[in-house]
Amino acid sequence: MREHYTRRRFLASSGVVGVAALAGCTGGDGGDGDDGGEETTEATTEEDGGDGEDWVETDYVEMTDDLVFDPANIEVESGTTVTWETTGAVGHTVTAYEDNIPDDAEYFASGGFDSEQAAVDGYNDGQEGNVPQGETFEHTFETTGTYEYYCIPHEMNGMVGQVRVV
């Protein structure tokens, strides 16, 4: 079974991994200046259980060349469809940690996989589930609770996120 990476482990290893990951990146202005007008975000005052990250009320998450979900922790109402979009040149996946979603919740992963292992195997066997630049993945959250997810190729870089459904 894969090990779940903690923030402490990520910070300890991110320096070396981060430099290696960025070594092949090309220049650019870091953005196109267009916020797309697709989202309304509002930082909440609640914390996410001890790691100090704010929750953002939005249904849109960018997957960036900085190897992050932006924002990393979002809050939505039950019945909301969340859209993840790859905004940089590097492709990403959206893969739920099967053991870290509410008990009665539907599993989700880009590529339409019905389990975490199937998503990992699909990605490793041909990058199935990869969301390339400009493409999106959507999932509708019906069950309340907190869902943890990650990007398969960039999990070790700390590319993890959470959706809290209220």
From TrEMBL:
Matching Gene3D superfamilies: Cupredoxins - blue copper proteins
Protein keywords: Copper, Electron transport, Membrane, Metal-binding, Transport
Gene Ontology terms: cellular component: membrane
Main location: membrane
Comp. bias (Acidic residues): 31-54
Pfam family, one: Copper-bind
Subcellular location per the Swiss-Prot or TrEMBL entry: Membrane
Blue (type 1) copper domain span: 64-165
Disordered: annotated span: 27-54
GO molecular function: copper ion binding; electron transfer activity
PANTHER family: PLASTOCYANIN MAJOR ISOFORM, CHLOROPLASTIC-RELATED
Protein name: Copper-binding protein
Provenance organism: Halobacterium bonnevillei
